[in-house]
Amino acid sequence: DNSSELIPKCRTCRRQARERSGGGDHHEGLSSDEELTPTEVDEFQRSKDNVLEDSRKIFEDVHADFCDIRKILLKFQEWKEKFPDSYCDAYISFCLPKLLNPLIRVQLISWNPLEQNFTELEEMPWFRAIEEFSDAENVSESK
């Protein structure tokens, strides 16, 4: 099969072309097809910055009690403690994921697990708030 011989030759040709052109930015093991040009990198960064800026504006006009996951969960906890029957009848455990989804997604827009110093999901404030709420819910159910 000639295709297995062709691949190393192509890689050698691309490496030699990079060496001649002074392309010292190449990372061994990556295909040159995967490498981005400086223009593409700038365009990506600009696009990413625009998305992050837009995401900061999403909840600008929302009252603080309704865009903070911890505060929302505290309201549900109060509801459960004061009116347990209606809380149970409303199937809140099924509603919370849909309710919190947009808030969590906004917080995850800038999260990149491929970066060296990324924050673990378990360390994020929204995760801890949900975990505390779940623990409090389990304790009250066991009573």
Automatic annotation (TrEMBL):
Coiled coil: none annotated. Residues 31-41 have a biased composition (Acidic residues). PANTHER family: GC-RICH SEQUENCE DNA-BINDING FACTOR (PTHR12214), INTRON LARGE COMPLEX COMPONENT GCFC2 (PTHR12214:SF4). The keyword Nucleus applies. Residues 13-41 are annotated as: Disordered. GO terms for molecular function: DNA binding. The keyword Nucleus applies. This is GCFC2 factor. Its main location: nucleus. Residues 16-30 have a biased composition (Basic and acidic residues). Keywords: Nucleus. GO terms for biological process: mRNA splicing, via spliceosome.
